[in-house]
Amino acid sequence: MTALREAMGDEDFDRAWAEGAALSTDEAIAYAQRGRGERKRPARGWGSLTPTERDVVRLVSEGLSNKDIAKRLFVSPRTVQTHLTHVYAKLGLASRVQLVDEAARRGSPS
């Protein structure tokens, strides 16, 4: 736990701990068992996105802020930004607006 606290910082660790503690047993099990998809993916394109990156794209397309997405996914806003950075690189996009436009054009990736 100490290593996690040091890696995350006190504020993010305490927030994540509180969010986890507030989950029901069923919610905690569902979260722990959430599928992560296949390990071998293409390096670029929609098929390269992880399940979590697809969730982030869907929530961005719904108009949620990074902070709101973080709450929904039980991660920090910084983690959401990291996912978005990866999504932009994989899809060859430069902004949130481009991402929303591309997701709408192609249909939601989730």
From TrEMBL:
Keywords: DNA-binding, Transcription, Transcription regulation. The keyword Heme does not apply. It comes from the Bacteria. InterPro entries: Sig_transdc_resp-reg_C-effctor (IPR016032), Tscrpt_reg_LuxR_C (IPR000792), WH-like_DNA-bd_sf (IPR036388). Pfam families: GerE. Residues 42-107 form the HTH luxR-type domain. GO terms for biological process: regulation of DNA-templated transcription. The keyword Transcription applies. One of its GO terms (molecular function) is DNA binding. This is LuxR family transcriptional regulator.
